[in-house]
């Protein structure tokens, strides 16, 4: 989970799930676009 705080800090925490749920999400959602961006650039916007 990614949390954007008011003080411009960002906290990234893993989402813990069992393998069955992970595979269901993987099959039904596009989780990664393959496009990368610099986090500093994103936060500056």
What would you say this structure looks like, in words?
This protein is of the alpha+beta class and 45 residues long. It has a domain at 15-45. The protein is 36% helix and 13% strand. The chain has 2 helices and 2 strands; from the N terminus they run ββαα. It has helices spanning 19-28, 39-44; strands at residues 2-4, 10-12. The chain has a two-stranded antiparallel sheet with strand order 1-2. Strand 1 (2-4) and strand 2 form a beta hairpin. The radius of gyration is 14 Å and the shape is flat. The chain starts with a strand and ends with a helix. The mean pLDDT is 83.
Kindly name the structural category: alpha+beta
Tell me the strand percentage band. Answer: 5-15%
Q: How do the SSEs run, as a string of H and E? A: EEHH
Helix content: 25-40%
Rounded to the nearest angstrom, the distance between the terminal CA atoms is 20 Å
Count of alpha/pi helices: 2
Q: Radius of gyration from the CA trace?
A: 14 Å
Write out the strand line-up for the largest beta sheet, numbering strands in chain order.
1-2
Task: Please report the total strand number as a whole number.
Answer: 2
């Amino acid at each position: 989970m990614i949390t954007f705080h008011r003080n411009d800090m960002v906290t990234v925490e893993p989402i813990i799930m069992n393998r069955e749920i992970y595979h269901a999400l993987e099959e039904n959602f596009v989780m990664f676009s393959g496009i990368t961006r610099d986090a500093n650039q994103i936060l500056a916007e």
